[in-house]
Each structure stands twice: as structure tokens, then as C-alpha cells.
Design goal:
heterodimer; A: mainly beta; 11 strands; 53% strand; B: mainly beta; globular
């Protein structure tokens, strides 16, 4: 149980385009989802916390107008990178917490974004 | 000062040896502590949570030292399959509703 999927797993796009990444909890309802970003040889950095039905909470330094998060249901959160630029190229990973209690975050397999 | 610090390594260790990593955290309000394993270009996978009393899971033992603000991971009888990057992570909240702050990870290479 506790499987989180992400789609797409890899995306290459041109500079200036927008890219949407989906994060789904497959076998549980996720009251809270998190979005992280990891640059090569760096740590995972929390970008934002997403709660179903409410606005996401962004970490300091993360532009909310550039990284649009929507958590419309208990099993789906989306991250849209708007007007992507090469410096946005990174590994984007979501995680989800079950609403059943416990504090384990279940991570998705990640999406590797390359902006040309 | 970085919030969570780890020695990046790499640690080159012969198979069967015991290896230990430390991780220090700066926020004394941190309540939850974890060790994750991350394989190359993959998502992190939870190895174990770290409790104040310490915990053990097979060959893996984790300890928490709140006074000195560090957590440790000990791997006994290391296997080739233990080769990976080990990330420590902390959260402010105890209930898991907070995002995690990760260290950069310690790269472990087990050699035959």
C-alpha cells in the first residue's frame, strides 16, 4: 500500500513553455502533499505544502506565480512550472501523507524536467 | 549555517564492515527525524524513523542526541546492495504534517 505516482517521469521542453506535473496517491487519500526539488548533487528542497481544497503554502524564495500548485482532490496534486527556463531544470518529487495518521511521507518516483 | 548537515563522502567501505554516519541539525525545535536511502536518480525511500530512545531494524541502528543536535546511522555487516546515498531529514512538527528538511546526503560505496 501507500503508493504515490508521478506523471510524466521525464519531460523535455523549450524555454518559455509551461509544464504540468501530476502527483497521485494510488491507494490512499492524501490530506497533505509536498513538492520538493532536487538539483544535481544537492539535497531535496521543500518548495511548497499542498492541502486539499486550500491554497498551497510556499517556502521562502519559491515564486508562487511561477510554480502553480493545485490540490483539487484527496488523491491528486499538480505542479505547473510556468514559463520554464533552463535554470528550472531539476528533479521534482512529490510526497504525500495519509489522512490515517502517522508521519511517514510517501514519495513519488519523481519527474526529471529539462528545459532547453 | 545549513539547517541539516551531512558529510557527503563518499565512504568506501569493504563488504561486511560496519559504517556509521552522523547528521547535525540546527533547529532545536525539530521534533521528527528520519533516515532515507536514495539510489541514483530515484526518489528517497524511508529507511527508518529516529526516536529519542534509538531504534534498530536488522543491521541498521539509528540514534538521536538532542543535546548535541545530531542523529546517527550505523550499518553493520554491510552488503553490496547498501551502496546508495543516505539522507537524513528533520521536521519541526511531530505529527508529520510538515515538510521535511533534508541534508545533502552521504554517499556510501560498498566494495567487494
Amino acid at each position: 500500500g501507500a503508493v504515490v505516482s508521478q506523471h510524466p517521469s521525464r519531460v523535455i521542453c523549450k524555454s518559455g513553455t509551461s509544464v504540468k506535473i501530476e502527483c497521485r496517491s494510488l491507494d490512499f487519500q492524501a490530506t497533505t502533499m509536498f513538492w520538493y526539488r532536487q538539483f544535481p548533487k544537492q539535497s531535496l528542497m521543500l518548495m511548497a505544502t499542498s492541502n486539499e481544497g486550500s491554497k498551497a503554502t510556499y517556502e521562502q524564495g519559491v515564486e508562487k506565480d511561477k510554480f502553480l500548485i493545485n490540490h483539487a482532490s484527496l488523491t491528486l496534486s499538480t505542479l505547473t512550472v510556468t514559463s520554464a527556463h533552463p535554470e528550472d531544470s531539476s528533479f521534482y518529487i512529490c510526497s504525500a501523507i495519509s489522512g490515517q495518521g502517522g508521519n511517514e511521507q510517501f514519495f513519488g518516483p519523481g519527474t526529471r524536467l529539462t528545459v532547453l | 549555517r545549513k539547517e541539516v548537515e551531512q558529510d557527503p563522502g563518499p565512504f568506501n567501505v569493504p563488504e561486511g564492515a560496519t559504517v556509521a554516519f552522523n547528521c547535525t541539525y540546527s533547529n532545536s525545535a525539530s521534533q521528527s527525524f528520519f533516515w532515507y536511502r536514495q539510489d541514483c536518480r530515484k526518489e528517497p525511500k524511508l529507511l527508518m524513523s529516529v526516536y529519542s530512545s534509538g531504534n534498530e531494524d536488522g543491521r541498521f541502528t539509528a540514534q538521536l542526541n538532542r543535546a548535541s543536535q545530531y542523529i546517527s546511522l550505523l550499518i553493520r555487516d554491510s552488503k553490496l546492495s547498501d551502496s546508495a546515498t543516505y539522507l537524513c531529514a528533520v521536521a519541526i512538527g511531530g505529527g508529520g504534517a510538515d515538510g521535511l528538511t533534508f541534508g545533502k546526503g552521504t554517499h556510501l560505496i560498498i566494495q567487494p
